[in-house]
Write a structure and sequence with these properties.
Helix 1 packs across helix 6 (198-210), helix 2 (107-117) crosses helix 5 (177-194) and helix 28 runs antiparallel to helix 30. The chain is an alpha+beta fold and 904 residues long. It starts with 19 loop residues before the first helix and ends in a 5-residue tail after the last strand. The radius of gyration is 27 Å and the shape is globular. The longest helix is centred in the N-terminal third of the chain and has 18 residues, at 177-194. The strands form four sheets. Strands 1-6-7-5-8-4-3-2 form an eight-stranded mixed β-sheet, sandwiched between helices. The chain has a six-stranded mixed β-sheet with strand order 14-15-19-16-18-17, with helices on both faces.
Length: 904
């Protein structure tokens, strides 16, 4: 079941190529209002006492569900693993399906933008932003087909403030005219941007074909012509009708006290009465009588395909067998379709299946593929052969058990953060009336039999009810397309250096029965050049493609069978390997990881397969406006900097690489002094170190550095570089040379400056976000410092309309000049530092995140506990140092732009 699908139950997809399928669904089921601030404050200060709690039920996992007399549902889950919390309020009987006479206007989404980004009757928008920024709260909201959800993630010490903020915005939004007009402009740009996003377009096309009568056919964001007719008065009317306690589910998860939470929420909603009940009856989709087909041309070099059959709704017991079948077909590298279509036959760039089972109507079972255009028809036929084969033969017991194990493991891995837990509670309760439906779901998955799978395959996979959706390149003539363990104490981090120089970090984190192991080596773009671009990426892609003991298929089969994962990747400064497994599987999984690292054999057939897949990924860059911009950026930099090396390489550099090149490169990097290993999770640190020593002591030691020196010139000259594309979107980047991570004082000052100008993790009250989003000029804007052991660059980046590109450049430059001339207030400076410190405190809470950050910092020579000094380093920064950094580094700007218009 893919979380964040509202009341949809979606089986876990397997998209080998950069998890594209997961991206499709997390960005398609919802239209998100990213970086919006939830507003608070009561229209009328009422003196009534708290609402009466009329019922209270407890569930396993420290979960409590309570009801107030006015109909408000409150769900609380205590989780004291870290001092963080999340506060959410989901409004049911909203979402695009519940807009009645306004269907197609995207009214719920408009309301979400206005409420999440606007003033209340107690505080202005600016006051609320300042409050949230001060404690580093992360705010957001999203709208789906049948729900609108508002949230704030925060340190647990600020919980009461967040509850009050969310409660007030749910009751007393002010609907300031200027804010409404501004958000309408933002939404219209968002709608336009969605039309160049293949994933969103695919979701829209599929919905329109699967549902002809159900309101689920209508895009969540609505249609532009209808959206333009929405008035402020209609929004207010919809808010008053829908945002009533009996339509709301208030959820709090984290390091909290249940009784205190219930009491505060009851008090916050004291003066708000129950509203009219909404029967929620929606038109039901009639049976599909014949095949359906839709195709659309879009910019890009690949063809995206979805094949879908009508299936069942959430309440139907056939759901479980369909979900298991989806796992068998595409979950993991050893699954039927992935092994055959991706690796052996090289028909697709990615492939996955999923079973969508909403509670409001029948769902569908789908196959999703991305292919090169000339292989589209062959890929479709092969996918259909796999699906229809399940109607004749029983799946094997081994496949069945593997799918069940994956589901059980997925349940554990999907509950690590308070945010994941909160979403689980909301969607389980919305779908079934119980917050623990997921546990019931996993239990029923374990009961599925091979006969049941064959039964559902014959029942639902009817060729006469097949829907085919294709997105093809422009001009292309397509022929047709388990229980959580009791908490225990978390240990300190232990560092051991092996005799060969390999550093090993361990930490016991027993909240969940899982283990995360990371191995990092200096490499990546640091060790590559423009001539060898893609070498690190290809090397990492080959490390699990066969060892002296196991074939690629055996490696994939093992990790798929345990519901775990193994991966290798290359970044700007490192190459890395990782395993994520359940505790019981760690020793064997670690041994296999060691084999991949120590004795890869680079088989020629797998080498050619892998190279072909990576070349396909290069072809797909042209479909992504941001990827195009980053490639243009890299091409515009001096060759001396590793940032001029394009991660993933280019066609000519990748094609030139041989297995001999990889073997030589691998030996250069595989030296003890160049490697750091971390093992975090439900382990005994001493035992983990011994396991690592038993395998990785074989790495040779060397006194020579394995990578080029970090002193790599990054000087750039003032210039503008533009690329004309066919996309109806404009991208703008402004770049300046920046220091490396070892120039700690300058780096910290620039980090604060970047936060003031563009926000920290989200826009907040930053200059560029407030100005450009506030005036509806951009869909997104952000700043970042791309640096590492070698000096890098500070960049500002925005997505806008093509005709606004030059205006965005002017606005960027105006704000840069504002910083260079020292026009930074003390208040802006202090808020930025507080926001950075509070946001950083909420990061790196899971075992995998901590294993990653500590290993990288130790590898770079900063020390594994460097992240713990973040607050201290930021506190030391002075306003004068920030102004000096602006004057020092804002020199010789490099301007990069792409749009469908020529450079002016």
């Amino acid at each position: 079941m893919l979380k964040h699908s509202m009341i949809f139950n979606v089986t876990r997809p397997n998209f080998v190529s950069l998890c594209i399928f997961l991206i499709v669904f997390t960005s398609s089921f919802y239209v998100r209002a990213d970086n919006m601030i939830n507003q608070t404050d009561k229209t009328e200060q009422k003196t009534c006492s708290a609402q009466e709690i009329v019922s209270r039920e407890t569930y396993p996992g420290n979960i409590t569900v309570a009801k107030l007399a006015n109909g408000l549902t409150i769900i609380v889950q205590e989780n004291h693993a870290a001092p963080v919390a999340t506060v959410r309020c989901a409004v049911k009987n909203t979402g695009s399906m519940h807009e009645g006479k306004y269907l197609g206007a995207g009214l719920s989404h408009v309301l979400e933008h206005v409420v999440a980004g606007g003033s209340t009757t107690k505080r202005s928008e600016a006051e609320i932003r300042q409050i949230v920024d001060t404690f580093g709260g992360i705010t957001n909201a999203y709208t789906s087909l049948d729900i609108t959800n508002y949230l704030i993630d925060c340190p647990s010490k600020n919980l009461e403030t967040c509850i009050e903020l969310i409660a007030d915005s749910m009751q007393h939004a002010a609907f300031v005219t200027e804010e409404f007009d501004r958000e309408m402009n933002v939404i219209q740009q968002e709608l336009a941007d969605g039309e160049v996003n293949r994933q969103r377009v695919m979701w829209k096309m599929l919905s329109e074909q699967i549902y002809l009568e159900s309101p689920a056919r209508v895009p969540i964001i609505g249609y532009l012509d209808v959206l333009k007719q929405v008035t402020r008065e209609q929004i207010i009317e919809f808010y008053r009708e829908k945002y009533v306690p009996n339509n709301q589910i208030f959820v709090v998860v984290g390091d909290v006290d249940t009784d205190k939470v219930l009491q505060q929420v009851a008090t916050e909603f004291a003066g708000t009465p129950r509203g009219m009940e909404d029967d929620g009856v929606l038109p039901q989709e009639p049976p599909q009588a014949s095949p359906r087909f839709a195709v659309r041309e879009m910019d890009g070099n690949t063809t995206d395909i979805t094949l879908a059959w009508p299936s069942v709704r959430l309440q139907d017991n056939d759901m479980y067998a369909l979900d298991v079948l989806s796992y068998i077909l595409s979950a993991g590298d050893s699954s039927r379709m992935v092994r055959d279509m991706l690796y052996e036959k090289q028909l697709v760039l990615s492939v996955g299946t999923y079973s969508v089972t909403p509670s409001f109507d029948r769902g569908y079972f789908a196959v999703r593929m991305s292919v090169l255009p000339d292989k589209a028809e062959e890929a479709i036929q092969q996918a259909l052969r796999h699906v229809y084969a399940t109607q004749k033969s029983l799946v094997s017991e081994k496949e069945l058990e593997k799918a069940k194990k994956i589901k059980a493991a997925e349940r554990v891995f999907g509950r690590q953060t308070v945010q994941q837990a909160a979403e689980d509670l909301i969607h389980s309760y919305m779908s079934t009336g119980t917050p623990v439906f997921d546990d019931h779901y996993v239990e029923n998955i374990q009961k599925v039999t091979a006969e049941q799978i064959r039964h559902v395959a014959n029942k639902y996979f009817d060729p006469e009810k097949l829907t085919t959706i294709k997105i093809v390149p422009k001009g292309y003539k397509d022929p047709q397309e388990a229980k959580i363990r009791e908490k225990d104490s978390v240990s300190d981090i232990h560092l051991v250096t092996l005799e060969n120089g390999v550093k090993v970090l361990t930490r016991r984190m027993p909240q969940l029965p899982l283990v995360e192991m990371k191995i990092y080596a200096l490499g990546g773009n640091l060790a590559d050049s423009r001539k060898t671009a893609g070498r690190s990426t290809l090397l990492c892609a080959m490390l699990d493609k066969g060892t002296k003991k196991m074939t690629a298929e055996q490696i994939a089969e093992y990790f798929d069978s345990i519901g775990g994962g193994i991966s290798f990747s290359a970044g700007r400064n490192t190459i890395s390997g990782s395993i994520s497994v359940l505790k019981e599987d760690f020793p064997k999984a670690m041994s296999i990881l060691a084999d991949c690292v120590l004795s890869p054999v680079f088989p020629e057939d797998k080498f050619q397969q892998t190279k072909s897949l990576l070349l396909g990924m290069i072809e797909r860059r042209s479909a992504d406006p941001r990827a195009e911009l980053m490639e243009l950026f890299a091409d515009s930099l001096p060759e001396t900097t590793p940032y001029a090396v394009l991660s993933g390489g280019k066609k000519e550099t990748l094609e030139a690489l041989t297995t001999a090149d990889l073997a030589k490169f691998y030996k250069e990097l595989l030296v003890g002094q160049n490697i750091t290993i971390s093992v975090f999770g439900d382990i005994q640190p001493e035992e983990a170190v011994q396991l690592v020593r038993s395998r990785f002591a074989a790495i040779p030691a060397s006194e020579k550095p394995a990578t080029p020196f970090f002193d790599r010139p990054n000087k750039i000259e003032t210039q503008r570089v533009h690329k004309t594309t066919q996309k109806d979107a404009g991208m703008v980047m402004l770049a300046y040379a920046a220091p490396n991570i070892f120039e700690k004082e300058d780096y910290a000052a620039l980090d604060v400056l970047c936060t003031i100008m563009a926000g920290y993790r989200y826009g907040g009250s930053s200059w560029l976000f407030t100005e450009l989003r506030g005036e509806g000029l951009v869909y997104s804007v952000q700043g970042a410092i791309l640096t590492g052991p070698a000096p890098g660059y500070m960049i500002f980046l925005a997505q806008t309309a093509p005709d606004k590109v030059d205006e965005i450049i002017r606005r960027f430059q105006k704000n840069v000049e504002r910083a260079k001339t020292g026009q930074i207030t003390e208040e802006e400076f202090l808020i930025a530092k507080e926001m950075m410190i509070a946001a950083n405190a909420q990061e790196n809470t899971t075992a995998g995140e901590q294993a990653t950050i500590t290993a990288i910092n130790e590898l770079f020579g900063l020390g594994y506990d460097y992240d713990k000094t973040f607050a201290e380093r930021i506190e030391k920064v002075t306003l004068e140092e920030v102004k000096a950094a602006a004057e020092k580094y804002f020199q010789n700007p490099l301007v990069i732009t792409t749009s469908n218009q020529p450079e002016k």
